[in-house]
Backbone:
C-alpha cells in the first residue's frame, strides 16, 4: 500500500467519532450530510462496518417528514458558528427529537452512496442485507424533495440557501446577494480563526447567509412559506444531478433486493420527468453547458462552474450535450497550466483560485467528473482528472480545496481551507482503486 493511501486511511480514522465522521477538526466539528455520504465510500474500501455506521447515523437524523439536515450537532463545540442555538431546528414541528440540527439540507448523495457500498463490498450478500435496512429512509427523503421542494411540479427541486448547494460561496450567488439588503449582524466568526480569512467568505456574505435562515425560522422552517418568501430560491444543477443519480441508484438497488414494484415505478416517474425538465430548462444552448436557475426572480444564472459538468455523473445529457460539456470544460478549465477541475470559470472576472468555491479544485467534484466522463466514454479525460487529483493530494496533503493553477504547486503550499479533510482522503482511496 502506498504512503499516500496509508495517510488517507489515517485521516479517516482520526476524523471518526465512534458513530460518524467530522469533515475536519475545528473548522467542521459535526456531521455534515454530503460529507458523510462521500466519506462512507472511502471507509467501504477498508472498514465496511464504519461505512455502514456513517450512513446509519446520518439517516437516524431524519425528520418526520423525510427531510435530512445538512449539519447534525451530535456534540457540543464552540469552534463553529452558527451552531444549534442559531439554527433552532426544534422550531419545525417534525424535526428530530433526538438530534439538534440545521433546518436546511445538502446535496442528496445517499442513494448513490448506497450503490457505491454495494459496488465496493466484497461480501455482496451481507452488504445487500444492510442496504435493505436503510434504503426506505432514502426513498422517503426523495419523496420529501419531490413533494415539498418542487412548487411548479416540474421535476426539479429548489434549494433555499447557498449552504444547501454545498458550493457555499460560488460567484453565482453574487447575483442573488445583489437582490438583497440584509441587516448587519453582530456575531463572532469561528472559521477565520482556523483558516486564513482570504480563503473564506466575507463578513457581508455571512450577513446574507444568516438573514435567509432568520426568514425561514420566522416561519418555523415551513417549506411552503420558504417557497413563497425566501429571497434565495434556486434550481441548482449539481443538487438536482445528485438527486437524479440517487434515483437511478435506488431503482437499481430495489431491483436487486426484489419486490418494491410501487417504489420503483414512482422513482422511474420522478426520474423521467426530472431528466426531461433538467435538459429543457437548465441547458444553456449558447454556453453549451448546464446553468443554475433563479426561481425567485425567474431567470437563468448564466455562469459556468464545475456544477455545470456534474450532470455527466447522473447520465442526464445526450451524447451531443455531453460532447459540448467536455469541449467547454477542456477549453476553459483544462489547458496545460491548470489542474482539472476549477470550481468556477477561470476565464471569468469573478474567478478567484484561492477562495473556497470561487475557483479552487475540489476532490468531490473531481470524483463525480471522473465517474461521469467514464460513463460517456471520455476515458482519457477521466484519467487526467484522476491523475490531477492524485498529484495535487500527493504534493500538498489532504486539504479541503486546491489552487487550480499548476505553477502555484511548486512548493506544496497550494492546499487551502481545512487540512486532514475527510472526503479528500475518502475519495482518493476510491480513485486509487479505479
Ligand atoms: C461552512 O460553515 O462553511 C459550511 O460549509 C456550511 O455548510
Residues:
Amino acid at each position: 500500500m502506498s504512503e499516500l493511501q496509508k495517510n488517507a486511511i489515517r485521516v479517516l480514522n482520526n476524523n471518526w467519532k465512534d458513530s460518524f465522521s467530522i469533515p475536519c477538526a475545528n473548522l467542521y466539528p459535526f456531521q455534515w450530510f454530503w460529507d458523510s455520504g462521500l466519506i462512507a465510500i472511502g471507509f467501504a474500501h477498508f472498514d465496511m462496518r464504519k461505512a455502514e455506521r456513517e450512513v446509519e447515523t446520518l439517516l437516524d437524523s431524519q425528520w418526520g417528514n423525510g427531510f435530512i439536515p445538512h449539519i447534525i450537532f451530535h456534540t457540543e463545540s464552540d469552534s463553529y458558528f452558527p451552531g444549534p442555538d442559531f439554527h433552532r431546528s426544534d422550531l419545525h414541528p417534525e424535526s428530530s427529537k433526538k438530534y439538534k440540527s440545521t433546518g436546511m439540507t445538502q446535496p442528496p448523495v445517499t442513494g448513490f452512496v448506497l450503490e457505491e457500498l454495494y459496488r465496493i463490498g466484497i461480501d455482496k450478500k451481507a452488504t445487500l442485507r444492510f442496504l435493505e435496512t436503510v434504503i426506505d429512509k432514502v426513498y422517503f427523503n426523495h419523496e420529501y424533495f419531490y413533494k415539498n421542494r418542487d412548487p411548479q411540479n416540474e421535476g426539479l427541486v429548489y434549494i433555499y440557501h447557498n449552504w444547501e448547494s454545498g458550493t457555499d460561496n460560488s460567484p453565482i450567488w453574487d447575483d442573488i446577494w445583489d437582490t438583497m439588503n440584509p441587516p448587519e449582524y453582530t456575531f463572532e466568526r469561528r472559521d477565520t480563526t482556523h483558516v486564513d480569512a482570504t480563503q473564506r467568505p466575507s463578513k457581508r456574505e455571512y450577513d446574507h447567509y444568516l438573514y435567509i435562515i432568520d426568514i425561514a425560522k420566522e416561519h418555523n422552517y415551513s417549506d411552503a412559506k420558504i417557497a413563497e418568501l425566501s429571497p434565495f430560491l434556486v434550481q441548482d444543477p449539481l443538487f438536482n444531478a445528485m438527486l437524479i443519480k440517487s434515483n437511478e441508484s435506488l431503482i437499481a438497488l430495489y431491483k436487486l433486493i426484489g419486490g418494491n414494484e410501487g417504489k420503483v415505478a414512482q422513482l422511474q416517474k420522478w426520474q423521467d420527468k426530472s431528466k426531461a425538465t433538467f435538459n429543457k430548462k437548465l441547458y444553456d444552448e449558447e454556453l453549451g453547458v448546464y446553468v443554475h436557475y433563479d426561481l425567485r426572480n425567474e431567470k437563468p444564472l448564466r455562469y459556468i462552474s464545475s456544477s455545470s459538468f456534474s450532470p455527466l455523473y447522473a447520465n442526464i445529457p445526450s451524447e451531443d450535450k455531453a460532447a459540448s460539456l467536455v469541449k467547454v470544460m477542456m477549453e476553459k478549465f483544462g489547458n496545460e497550466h491548470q489542474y482539472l477541475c476549477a470550481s468556477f470559470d477561470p476565464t471569468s472576472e469573478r474567478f478567484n483560485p484561492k477562495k473556497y468555491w470561487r475557483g479552487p479544485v475540489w476532490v468531490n467534484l473531481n470524483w463525480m467528473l471522473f465517474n461521469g466522463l467514464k460513463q460517456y466514454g471520455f476515458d482519457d479525460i477521466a484519467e487526467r482528472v484522476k491523475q490531477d487529483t492524485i498529484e495535487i493530494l500527493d504534493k500538498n496533503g489532504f486539504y479541503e480545496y486546491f489552487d487550480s493553477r499548476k505553477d502555484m504547486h511548486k512548493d506544496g503550499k497550494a492546499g487551502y481551507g481545512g487540512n486532514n479533510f475527510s472526503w479528500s482522503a475518502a475519495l482518493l482511496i476510491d480513485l486509487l482503486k479505479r
Summary: The CA atoms of residues 295 and 329 lie 26 Å apart.
